[in-house]
Amino acid sequence: MLTYVKEAFDSFSSRCILVLAIALIAGFQYMFWYGEGGYYDHQRLMQQIQQQGDVNTDLKERNRILAAEVYDLKNGVEAVEEHARLDLGLIKPNETFVQMSTISTQYQSTYVDPNNAKDSKNNEDEDSPDLH
Fold first, then answer.
1. Which of 9, 19, 62, 105 has the fewest CB atoms inside 10 Å of its own CB, making it the most exposed?
2. Contacts (Cβ under 8 Å, ≥6 apart) of 18
3. How far apart are CA 8 and CA 15, in angstroms?
4. Global confidence as pTM
5. First-residue to last-residue Cα distance in the chain
6. For the chain, what are the domain ranges?
7. 73, 80 Cβ separation under 8 angstroms
8. How far apart are CA 25 and CA 16, in angstroms?
9. CA–CA distances in Å: residue 51 to residues 56, 57, 59
10. What angle do CA 20, 26, 28 make, to 5 degrees?
């Protein structure tokens, strides 16, 4: 068998055909893997399609929620009243409005009573070791 292969490629033309066949196969493999529309390009596009599908699903859910809100605002009194109370600050007649503070309990007042400040200053001066 080995002798047959040696005899087949003894001539110059058969060697040229072999080199040409190897070059064509390598070129086709390169185009398959790296060319436009090749394997890696296809994988990248499939990933982009998946990401866009996820974005579209999120946007469809948001649109469904907004459509429900629009329907409520057009057909329901409670939704209009809630919008007026929360966003516009409106109240009904004979209703008392109470606003709660959102300041945390760790808030310290910066107000200093002037009467107490003078008394504490005088006490500090008398007890200060530098003045004696």
1. 105
2. 9
3. 9
4. 0.42
5. 119
6. 52-91
7. yes
8. 14
9. 9, 10, 13
10. 100
